[in-house]
Amino acid sequence: MVKFMEFASSNSIFGDVYFGISFVVLGTVLMGSLWYMYRTKSCPKQWRADGKTILITGGNTGIGKWTALELAKRVIARTETVSGEEEGGGKTARRLLIPVIAISVTRGEEAAEFICSKVPCALVTVMKMDLSSLNSVRHFVKEFKAKYDKLDILINNAGVALVPLTRSEDGYELHFAVNHLGHFLLTCLLLDQLKASTEGARIVVVSALAHKFVSINLKEINSEEGYVSWKAYSRSKLANILFARELTKLLKGSNVTVNSLHPGIVETDLLRHLVVYKVFRYCAWPFIKFFLKTPREGAQTSVYVAVSPDLAGVSGKYFSDCDEASVSKEAEDDHLAQALWKMSVEMTGL
Ligand SMILES: NC(=O)c1ccc[n+]([C@@H]2O[C@H](COP(=O)([O-])OP(=O)(O)OC[C@H]3O[C@@H](n4cnc5c(N)ncnc54)[C@H](OP(=O)(O)O)[C@@H]3O)[C@@H](O)[C@H]2O)c1
């Protein structure tokens, strides 16, 4: 090794390349380590959601599952008297209940078991809803209203990304249908339940930094011409912020707030629809994994926006890493937000 270094320093071209590469590698490792240490702020544990009824879309995996778990830890258990028959004895017994609700399309029961294994007294209700189907959303809302008379926290978390051109059952481009339209209809149909929240309700919209890389032409939003999946995804995330912006105006004077956020770049299976995903995951993941947030870390900003006492009454803002952040110019366009709202009403038949 010493001889090699002597050779490197005696040979000027080789030496320059050698030291150049060493500098880049060491620099990357150092910067990476610093970034890793300071990359995530956590939502303080003492900020609670006791007594709240919480609805999370896409709660079965990724960021949604960890958001559900983090919130389950912040809800005081209440006790309920149950009859002896149910408990298998002859007497009455008391059982702990935590009103956390996770919603998912599939694999929801696994997530519920996972949450209950960490918070044994958690009550996690799994209800099915396919956000790509407006019928399914309507059906879900009916079922939800029959079960619960109020909703305190709605977290619009579910999403798809980088899907090859696909149409929803209602004929809309899939990113737009799931990430925006499904959540648009769900939120609008649940507004009465949210307004019934005694302490004030919060709507949390999980958007993405990707909204900054695109603009929206409403006339072309459902067009097949020149379809590029990452643009379609980014547009749907821009639509999330415009939706939150317009809804903030419509909810002015009510006890409901709405804010959007970027969760960070998180190690989940969000890109599972990408054709080369498996190869990518196998070859590149071990190298980039180090720079990604874990799903638990990715859930922190959603939890922060849902429970932070500092955000009581705060509406229409965008957050990243448990802090307010800036959005793109287009995401601040009130005319666009209004036009998108009008179009969404027509598309969902609201
Ligand atoms: N991961 C990141 O780096 C990142 C970065 C920025 C923003 N985000 C946003 O964070 C949110 C959560 O993503 P994630 O990373 O946790 O991804 P994920 O692990 O793939 O989770 C996505 C969730 O959405 C659900 N979902 C997909 N299609 C649905 C449909 N038609 N109806 C109902 N639910 C549906 C999935 O359910 P199934 O499993 O049953 O399909 C899953 O529970 C998304 O909105 C995403 O845009 C993520």
Automatic annotation (TrEMBL):
<keyword id="KW-1133">Transmembrane helix</keyword>
<dbReference type="InterPro" id="IPR002347">
    <property type="entry name" value="SDR_fam"/>
</dbReference>
<keyword id="KW-0560">Oxidoreductase</keyword>
<protein>
    <submittedName>
        <fullName>Retinol dehydrogenase 14-like</fullName>
    </submittedName>
</protein>
<keyword id="KW-0812">Transmembrane</keyword>
<dbReference type="Pfam" id="PF00106">
    <property type="entry name" value="adh_short"/>
</dbReference>
<feature type="transmembrane region" description="Helical">
    <location>
        <begin position="17"/>
        <end position="38"/>
    </location>
</feature>
<dbReference type="InterPro" id="IPR036291">
    <property type="entry name" value="NAD(P)-bd_dom_sf"/>
</dbReference>
<keyword id="KW-0472">Membrane</keyword>
